[in-house]
């Protein structure tokens, strides 16, 4: 394990608002005001945010495509005692944004990395979508080309977790139509658009209805968008719990298979045909 020298600086990973400046947390302002330098995805873009909060700290550009010397220079600077703050254009760095190379190299070099949490579009969307949030998978941006996009969707079609995607406004309609094709028209999808901003819209529906709604209103094809997809329903053979089996065995001791399946369906919520087939398999 690498140990952190106490006279070193710190790499702070600082979240910034995703639209509403009121979401800038006080600790983020304080950190950006006090570090030696801010490594920003786009210094011109960030200059507006920094001016708004009267942050005068010098800024340098950092991107994951920056050459290796930029990463090395930043790490050397932290090791020499300066603290550095990493920010992206909006939201949490590293979440579909630059920062991975810097944070990984910093940790490998034994530099202390401290997160300053704040806005993140996918978490904001998940918190308001009303979809299961106990297990979810963040999938970032889907491929831009349709064949690759459908292949990716296909690989996720049976995933039981809530799926979260970022999508560009000019592709939203095609993506919803592809989702209807691959996941089936009935799959529930929530579109969270322009979160924290004036035209914030959160709309949930089955995916074919949502696609038709987006097609009929071009305003829905603007701005920044998160798509959340209900996980795949469990295959019914996995839905048979020990309790369901017990209910069915008691019913089958007393009743013909057809009647047991019909009553079992009412008691368990499972489909009558499925329980009928299950009962026949037990008799084999
Ligand atoms: N790092 C950011 C975060 O923490 O959410 C994400 C950066 S990624 C380059 C930009 C994408 O995030 C947008 O295309 C959109 O899909 C999503 N996004 C960002 N801000 C948003 C907002 N206010 N409402 C909805 N989606 C947003």
From TrEMBL:
Domain RsmI HTH: 239-282
Keyword rRNA processing belongs to the record: yes
Family matches, as SUPFAM superfamilies: Tetrapyrrole methylase
Gene Ontology terms, MF aspect: methyltransferase activity
PROSITE patterns in the record: RSMI (PS01296)
EC annotation from Swiss-Prot or TrEMBL: 2.1.1.198
Keyword S-adenosyl-L-methionine carried by entry: yes
Record keywords: Cytoplasm, Methyltransferase, rRNA processing, S-adenosyl-L-methionine, Transferase
Function: Catalyzes the 2'-O-methylation of the ribose of cytidine 1402 (C1402) in 16S rRNA.
Name by which UniProt lists this protein: Ribosomal RNA small subunit methyltransferase I
Organism: Cellvibrio fibrivorans
């Amino acid at each position: 394990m690498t140990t952190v020298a106490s006279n070193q600086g710190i790499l702070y990973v600082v979240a910034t608002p995703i639209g509403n400046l009121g979401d800038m947390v006080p600790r983020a302002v304080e950190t950006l005001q006090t570090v030696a330098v801010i490594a920003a995805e786009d210094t011109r873009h960030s200059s507006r945010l920094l001016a708004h909060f009267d942050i005068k700290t010098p800024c340098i550009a950092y991107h994951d495509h920056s050459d290796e010397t930029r990463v090395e220079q930043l790490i050397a600077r932290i090791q020499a005692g300066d603290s550095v703050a990493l920010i992206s254009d909006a939201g949490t760095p590293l979440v579909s944004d630059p920062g991975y190379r810097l944070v990984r190299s910093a940790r490998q070099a034994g530099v202390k990395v401290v997160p300053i949490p704040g806005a993140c579009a996918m978490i904001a969307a998940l918190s308001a979508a009303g979809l299961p949030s106990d297990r979810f998978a963040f999938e970032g941006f889907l491929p831009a080309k349709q064949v690759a996009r459908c292949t990716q969707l296909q690989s996720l079609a049976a995933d039981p977790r809530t799926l979260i995607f970022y999508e560009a406004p000019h592709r939203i309609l095609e993506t919803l139509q592809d989702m209807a094709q691959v996941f089936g028209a009935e799959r529930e999808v929530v579109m969270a658009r322009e979160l924290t901003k004036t035209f914030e819209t959160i709309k949930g529906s089955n995916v074919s209805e949502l696609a038709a709604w987006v097609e009929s209103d071009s305003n829905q094809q603007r701005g920044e968008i998160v798509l959340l997809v209900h996980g795949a329903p469990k295959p019914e053979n996995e839905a048979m719990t020990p309790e369901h089996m017990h209910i069915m065995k008691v019913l089958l001791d007393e009743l013909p298979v057809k009647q047991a399946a019909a009553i079992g369906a009412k008691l368990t919520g499972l489909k009558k045909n499925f329980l009928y087939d299950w009962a026949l398999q037990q008799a084999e």
